[in-house]
Amino acid sequence: MKKLIRGAVVGLVAALTLSACGGGDSGDDNPLAGGGDSGTVTVGGANFPESNLLGELYAQALEAKGVKVTRKFNIGAREVYYDQVVKGGISVMPEYNGALLTTSVDKSSTAATTEEINAALKAKLPAEVEILNSAQAEDKDSVTVNPQTAAKYNLKSIADLKPVAGELTIAGPSEFKTRQQGLVGLKSAYGLEFKKFQPFDAGAQATLVKLLVENKIQAADLFTTDPTIEQNKLVVLEDPKNVFSAQNVTPLVHKKAVNDTARAALNAVSAKLTTQDLLDMMKRIAIDKDDQEKVAEEWLKKSGLA
Length: 306
Prior knowledge:
Elements: H1 8-17, E1 41-44, H2 49-64, E2 69-72, H3 78-87, E3 92-96, H4 97-105, H5 114-124, E4 129-131, E5 143-145, H6 147-153, E6 169-172, H7 180-190, E7 196-199, H8 205-213, E8 219-221, H9 227-231, E9 235-236, E10 249-254, H10 260-272, H11 275-286, H12 292-302
Helix pairs in contact: 2-10, 2-12, 4-5, 11-12
């Protein structure tokens, strides 16, 4: 989900402010401002809609158990927010376990399954943080092509791209260029070298999909729960070499900031959340333009968590 985390421009701005982040006023407009008053749990969200929806699910589930919550959404990419969880500026962050492992914890890891990934995270995360229970819900990065490209080259698998990648433009978030679960891994595992990489930030996702549909780009890194894939009959290519590992939605928490009540509330969300739930909720947000607060509230009530 997994998981495309987005934001070159946001990352640059946030990087300039990291030295000021710590124990500031919880009402600060800066999304990386401090964690708020003592006893408040600060729930973060990255710079793309699904992460913020998950953050809202966590926030409302915590509030339903009487936990005081501050929301800090649209922070930036993992390269920006991860250190803030370690330092305690963010208490709870919705994560995708596979991407967390290979981006921030162990870039050389070959763990592929949920169990392998979580075992590696528990062994190697800094002492200040921990992962809680993973959800069945999963949202992977993918190499997705438009239907005309799939038909022209008879593409079903990423491996099928090898003889034609040099003719194609692939697009995605700027960090996709340098991540193992990105162009680096696609080159080492499949030998792919594309004609061009076109970076897009999270706010330009609609433009990326439009260009893909119009065949101005031929391939893109899209989350597998992106509702525009089905809407536009785009083709997600199979990944037999598992460049994109398991990406289960998993809470990452700063240990000292969450008590047993908070842990139980977050684990209860993980116990209920499925991939189909994510697909349905993201369709409501991305296609139907429903408010994420309403979508989160209704799912929690339906699931008996609020």
